[in-house]
Specification:
Length: 129
Amino acid sequence: MPKTSSAHLSRRERQIMDVIYRLGQASAADVLENLPDPPSYSAVRALLRVLEAKGHVRHKRDGARYLFLPTQPRQHAARSALRRLLQTFFDNSAEKAVAALLDASEAKMSRAEWDRLAHLIDNARKEGR
């Protein structure tokens, strides 16, 4: 499995990755059909080639078309993006990131969400993370 580039994804590249993760695999036509305010078909194909060059997707042939698949599980990609976010905006501080999330939250958290969050914090504390 190729290692993904550390280059950041553009907004449109993130949207394309979201479509591919959601569908599991996707042709350029599938991506085009699922994008908000889609660009041209040739632009989608070009962006898929860029994502492949960056190591985020790979392709396989399905008859006359190419199907694009993610090179890593979504959870792994999310962790990598979160690490970059922590480094860039929060001085590698989980505390600062959580505080910002709680301050910026538009929706109130339910009692169950607060309980799950407390449970995750307790477990991390016990494991010494």
